[in-house]
Amino acid sequence: MTVLRSLWDRFEEGVVAFLLATMTLVTFVYVILNNFYTLFYTLGDFFGGNEALLAIGDFIIDLAQTMTWSIALAKALFAWLIFFGLAYGVRTAGHIGVDALVKLASKPTQRIIGLIACLACLGYAGLISVASFDWMRTLLGAGIGAEDLGHYGIQQWHITIIVPFGYAMVFIRFLEVFVRILRNQQTGLGLADEAAEAMKLTEHDEDQKKEDQQ
Known about the structure:
Blueprint: H1 2-46, H2 51-66, H3 69-91, H4 107-142, H5 156-160, H6 162-182, H7 194-213
Helix pairs in contact: 1-2, 1-3, 3-6, 4-6
């Protein structure tokens, strides 16, 4: 079980990295192609209408015009990154926690509040997962092509399937949190504490200044 969980965690991190890298690469190539052709047109005019340079410019601009799918693909990848990253954020305490008042309470009270909050998160994630699955199933039956990607065989349900899947993973992650709270392994949802992070950064800056002065 531990091995399977470790493999899934690594797979989760790999997918997040892949989506981010692919989205960045596609956007970068599209931007470069839409600006790089001017260089060859300028050089071609500078060298008295050099046909070879002008032909390269024509090739690049034609290539850029065929990449109309890049924006739609970047949007789809970004959507996948968001919904896949939801569960990853729960696992890594990446979501911001608003629990300043909760931390003033005693540990048993914090544990009760944590259980209630976790049940609310489980209910929300389960509700959205079921509702979005029905939405995705409707799109599957309709067979509607995705914007600027339909002629490549990509349909809208291929993109929206990440919503029920992502929230199902969020449900599983919060279920793990719920079990840990019941076992007294943690008291809250384990969310990020911005105040603590700010204090660490302040202390680090002060230590750095003292070292510089010495």
